[in-house]
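Incident log entry.

Two folding requests arrived from the same account within the same minute. Monitoring flagged them as a possible duplicate submission, but the sequences differ. Recording both here for audit purposes.

Request one:
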Amino acid sequence: MANSSFIFLCFLLIFSGSIVVHAMTGTYGINYGKISDNIPAPEDVLRLLRMNKIKNIRIYDADPRVLRAFSGSGIEISVCLPNELLKDVSLNGSIALEWIQVNLQPYLPGTSIRGIAVGNEILGGDTSISEALVPAVRSVYRALRRLGLTKTIEVSTPHSEAVFSSTYPPSNGTFKESMMPYLGPLLHFFNRVGSPFYINAYPFLAYKFDPSHIDINYALFQPNKGIVDPKTKLHYDNMFDAMVDATYVALEKLGYTKMQVIVSETGWASKGDDNEAGADPKNARTYNFNLHKRLMKKKGTPYRPKMLAKGYVFALFNENLKPGPTSERNFGLFKPDGSIAYDIGFRGLVSSAPSKDFVLQGRFWSSQSLIIVVCTIILVLFM
């Protein structure tokens, strides 16, 4: 008995360091961006998320107001170490340690902080900080390990489609050679610590830049003939799955056959400039309704059928202070007042029903109809 207990203890000691934490335990989450001066307070956002049973969110900073408001909610949050801190963190591990101690540790364990995204879309974007990404990721992980938090907080970094040289068909998924000096060591490290690969995948952007060659129904999860990958013979009836599988193929070509792919951003703009094809409320509603339905089925992709597809929709609110084209300010599922931007089955903080209508027993009545009903009841009572 003593020997078996000793063996069991040794087993725990050997494998306790291999426990992998996942920032996203569900399959559907939402990005909570705040580049705006008119969105609801964090306490109201929490109420909105609870009403709609959203349990996974990403924020683009470590806003203490959000972390404080979400304490005890059980909603799992992934925070972000801002791009502007990457160089300093990459050169000095004590800065990463201090950032975690100041910005995250005071809210643990009450607030369910489950992930740290080190920067956002670094590779393929700002080349001046590309070389800082890997050492910054390592610094953050070492700081978490020093604080005993590696089993509760995942380290990751999201990428844009700019890291690929090819994604079509999915079997051609390949990373750019110019990315490999940074991506190679990053993937090696993430594979060692068990982190997923996060990709920002937007069928909207693909359609926007090439509407004449892309079937919008394929982009929107609507009925269409789809495509058949000539190499794998797999059929794809939507672009979202194809983008995820192209990522799996690119990782496999580098030897990472078990690394999970999670979509850190995807969505569809409800408004855009004249040159932004497809940006309208109808398409936004269709994409986001079908995306939610697809992710809630909790199934894999054609190439990875046993690996659940997971994704965070972008975004919770329209953000009126975001720079760039009009579409950038119109990705929200909700308007600034907390009402729904369009109906995908979610509830808003305020009703979006027409103000001149009355709700009676689940049906909408005009004021004239209500007067007729009341008069009829009065007439019957006095007869």
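Request two (distinct sequence, not a duplicate):
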Amino acid sequence: MKWSNIIQTIIFLCLIGPGSVGNILMFVRQVYTSALGTEKKPVDLILIHLAFSNMIIICTTGIRDIATVFYFRNFLGDIGCKAVVYLARTARGLSICTTCLLSVVQALTISPRTTIWRKLKPQTSWQILTYVLLFWIFNALTSSNLLYYMTAGGSLNRSGVAGYIGYCYMLPSRDTVKWLFLSLMAVRDLIFQSLMGWSSGHISFYLYKHHKQVLYLHSCRPVNSFSPEIKAAQSILILMACFLVFYWADFIFSFYTGYMVTHDSIILNIKTCLVLGYAVLSPFVLMSRAVPVAKAL
């Protein structure tokens, strides 16, 4: 094995290992809290689903990278390529939708009880489960073209492929099909990122306003700068910042690799790290600041 492949393997293991452990811990922790809690909180189900989506991303990306780094050309095959890439794309969409739902629910939670926004907050886990089911249906359909156009590249003429993902290749498709699915993904990302932006601004505004009120009421004595509401604000805003950084960096690299139809290993490795980045970091951001907004205010 080449030294470059050894270094690449170490980097991937350093991402996949901690990422898997972090998401499993968050998944088990939230299931345990939800199972033993007297009141089933909607936010618990959201965090469980986010951890589950992240684990799918990490596992599918890890399997694909093992096949690529160790030159296991027949490791996946056509069915394996279709399944791995399809699940990875679907899970990525689920991560976007679930992160947005978490941000919106937290924003509705801290809204004053008298506002109309507070009335939109999901009251039960069953309502969250409905959203999750819709997310699965929508993202499964949005990624369904991969089940037909994705194939293994063992005996494929690489000059005619439209995309390259490890040893899996995407066959050229008709312009109508290509733009239909690209439009669906673009509309999804635009809607959910707009909601993320609104909810993040909403959280920042109300928590800042709340903190100023606390400073005014307790101006005669020192106030702890790491109060629960500040930790809650930082947790959500850091999570949103991480998501946006990794999303847009991945978007730029995806656009470049798609436009140039490049098989450059360095570019593809950087893109893989960006895909894994949010899935690896998000559980540690949430667990290190274990103060949900719903409990902080």
